[in-house]
């Protein structure tokens, strides 16, 4: 059993003491609770997210009916995860689930490495490198603990730790429902873009895959761009930054057999 539960009387004091030795820092900000608490919060948020989409009939379970889709998706995710570039590869659970909604081109991740991708995103993309790039972006948000930091800023450390303790179920449901629309800071989005390039650099994929999605979305004239693309900096600046980073690493323009990706699209 993980030793992550904090005594309730500690919540208020931890929320108000911002520079203590109990703090841990990842990415550009500070997360005021431990990796273990991050994992526990992510598990609870993911369970609530699963329950919400299961009730709607949109969660593609890992069963015989959907086995083919996950057989094709998992290797893409694992190539990114096993790039050797993640800080918390061994700490977080790193599972991926598909939400069946062809009208939404989005993906998101909870704290602790639970990743969700909409069928609409997979069907919208042109190739496997683009999907790997978008997944890399979301993996970076979880691995750099951006999601935890953004939730901490929005809801406060005391509330988040109460969720870890099993309190405030209504608030947990609200957080889970809004996770896909969570707005990250300019620095967090830029860092996730950069890490996506770094992750893909160590794989078979073209490391500017995320930029490919930006370009396709702009060309399609999308009216409602996914949250991780619509927040600042603007998509044009992000395309340029990704291409610059990819050029520096020399990992642009790689071609990958697209047959498995096309099979994934058909399986959905």
UniProtKB/TrEMBL annotation:
**UniProt keyword annotation of Protease present:** yes
Where is the signal peptide, in residue numbers? 1-22
User: Which keywords fit this entry according to its UniProt record?
Assistant: Hydrolase, Metal-binding, Metalloprotease, Protease, Signal, Zinc
Q: Which organism is it from?
A: Hymenobacter cavernae
Tell me which residues make up the Peptidase M48 domain: 73-244
| Family affiliation | Belongs to the peptidase M48 family.
Q: InterPro entries recorded for this chain?
A: Mito/Outer_Membr_Metalloprot (IPR051156), Peptidase_M48 (IPR001915)
Task: State what protein this is by name.
Answer: Peptidase M48
Q: How many cofactor units bind, and how?
A: Binds 1 zinc ion per subunit.
């Amino acid at each position: 059993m993980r030793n992550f539960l904090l005594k309730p009387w500690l919540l208020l004091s931890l929320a108000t003491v911002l520079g203590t030795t109990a703090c841990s820092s990842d990415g550009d900000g500070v997360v005021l609770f431990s990796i273990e608490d991050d994992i526990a919060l992510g598990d609870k948020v993911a369970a609530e997210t699963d329950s919400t989409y299961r009730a709607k009939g949109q969660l593609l379970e890992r069963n015989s009916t959907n086995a083919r889709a996950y057989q094709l998706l998992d290797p893409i995710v694992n190539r990114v995860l096993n790039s050797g570039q993640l800080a918390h590869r061994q700490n977080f659970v790193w599972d991926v689930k598909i939400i069946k909604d062809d009208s939404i081109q989005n993906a998101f991740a909870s704290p602790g490495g639970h990743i969700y991708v909409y069928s609409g995103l997979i069907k919208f993309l042109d190739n496997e490198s683009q999907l790997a790039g978008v997944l890399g972006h979301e993996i970076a948000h979880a691995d750099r603990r951006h999601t935890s930091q953004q939730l901490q800023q929005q809801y406060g450390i005391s509330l988040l730790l109460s969720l870890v303790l099993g309190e405030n179920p209504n608030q947990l449901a609200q957080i889970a429902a809004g996770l896909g629309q969570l707005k990250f800071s300019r620095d967090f989005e830029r860092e996730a873009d950069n890490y996506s390039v770094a992750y893909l650099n160590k794989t078979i994929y073209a490391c500017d895959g995320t930029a490919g999605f930006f370009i396709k979305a702009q060309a399609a004239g999308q009216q409602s761009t996914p949250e991780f693309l619509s927040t600042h900096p603007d998509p044009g600046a992000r395309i340029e930054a990704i291409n610059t980073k990819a050029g520096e690493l020399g990992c642009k323009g790689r071609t990958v057999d697209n047959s498995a990706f096309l099979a994934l699209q058909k399986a959905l």
